[in-house]
Amino acid sequence: MDDDLEQQPQGWLSSWLPTWRPTSMSQLKNVEARILQCLQNKFLARYVSLPNQNKIWTVTVSPEQKDRTPLVMVHGFGGGVGLWILNMDSLSARRTLHTFDLLGFGRSSRPAFPRDPEGAEDEFVTSIETWRETMGIPSMILLGHSLGGFLATSYSIKYPDRAWPGAAIPAGLQTQVCRLL
């Protein structure tokens, strides 16, 4: 057995408990590229550099008609831009759609976060506002899943003139949510 590999616990309990799996940025890039191939609409995937040197990985899908308020989708804990893949084509049919990896997730920067909950929340909300400013988006509809729903709501409370909270989704994307947009 290779000494460089960490040995996993043995037994019935460890067989069904979630375990950490080593990964890499190159694996993430390859898997994400395969996921994004499912999109029928044209998209742009790139890093958006923030003034504080952090980078937010962003995917934008734009229809030909771009005069409607853009939809910004914020993933939940452990998620990323790929979370929304099955909904991105239909949700971008009549408006520009942006989705991004929150700081600390996916392909975005991993800065040191404050240890207190309020400080961490403020760090996320501030990064979303800085991202919005950098992208040149005057106002947006926010759609969040799980942690993303919490952050979208927090953002909308702090910046009510810049965002309309579209929905906070606990799991999946329901037909009723699509009708709202």
UniProtKB/TrEMBL annotation:
Signal peptide span: none
Domain AB hydrolase-1, first and last residues per copy: 70-162
Pfam families: Abhydrolase_1
Coiled coil: none
One of the record's GO cellular component terms: mitochondrion
Superkingdom assignment: Eukaryota
Matches recorded under InterPro entries: AB_hydrolase_1, AB_hydrolase_fold
GO biological process, one term: phosphatidic acid biosynthetic process
Recorded GO MF terms: lysophosphatidic acid acyltransferase activity; phosphatidylcholine lysophospholipase activity
PANTHER family on file: (LYSO)-N-ACYLPHOSPHATIDYLETHANOLAMINE LIPASE, RE40534P-RELATED
Protein name, per record: ABHD4 isoform 3
Species of origin: Pongo abelii (Sumatran orangutan)
Lineage per the UniProt record: Eukaryota, Metazoa, Chordata, Craniata, Vertebrata
